[in-house]
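[INFO] parsing input record for ribonuclease H
[DEBUG] input buffer:
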Amino acid sequence: MIQHRDTLIPIHKLIRQLESQGVISRTRSPFNSPIWPVRKSNGEWRLTVDYCGLNEVTPLMSAAMPDMLELQYELESKAAKWYATIDRANAFFSIPLAAECRPQFAFTWRGVHYTWNRLPQGWKHSPTICHGLIQTALEQGEAPEHVQYIDDIIVWGNTAEVVSEKGKKII
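[DEBUG] output buffer:
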């Protein structure tokens, strides 16, 4: 349970904001998981929920996720002078969560039961789903050569102009 005032106020504002954006909504559900807010490096808060219990009973999903070491080797092999990272901010929140799945993602804040309408952070399959959808979109859009990990995309080139053009094509 969160008890520090310096945490309560920002989390309350964040929940109101997410609700007004339609990312979360009030619900009645037989499920409930505790919230687990995380402070970002910039000092802002990220609302995550401790889905350890849900994750334990969720069946495994077989999907290809890139290995970080392989991605590092691939980037090193490019030997480019310039690199740029594109971070799809709040990418999970752009992915609708099927209505029939929403009850299991319920959580409580200050006596009110909420659930996610968008892909939640903290669920074990969220990164895999997000990665796959972005990968498909990049493939359909004929994106220039890049490396992708979940919602981060890296492009490279020997000049800033080349990297900028690649980034614009991806965006």
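[INFO] The mean pLDDT is 91.
[INFO] shutting down worker
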